[in-house]
């Protein structure tokens, strides 16, 4: 059976319990899934370090960007 072409990759990530608890709470506070929060954290870190350009899937709306700056 042929593999489905997808733009996302799956991988296993091992995280200590305290870190995972903090990520889950942060995700809940922002009404995101844990997976969505991790994707956001990684994209933000890459963008801030200049390793990822803004794209449609990772860019903020104007209001979200202003909130982040405050």
Keywords:
0% strand; mainly alpha
Helix content: 40-55%
Unreliable segments of 5+ consecutive residues: none
Shape: globular
* Order of SSEs: HHH
- For this structure, the quaternary state is single chain
Note the gap between the termini. Answer: 50 Å
- Estimated share of beta-strand residues: under 5%
Q: What is the structural class?
A: mainly alpha
Tally of individual helices: 3
Question: Radius of gyration, Cα only, in angstroms?
Answer: 15 Å
Total strands: the figure is: 0
Largest sheet: none
Mean pLDDT: 83
Summarize the model shown.
The chain has helices at residues 17-29, 34-48, 62-69.
Verbal overview:
- The protein is an all-alpha fold and 70 residues long.
- The chain has a domain at 19-50.
- The chain has three helices and no strands.
- The chain has helices spanning 17-29, 34-48, 62-69.
- The longest helix has 15 residues, at 34-48.
- It is globular and about 35 Å long.
- The mean pLDDT is 83.
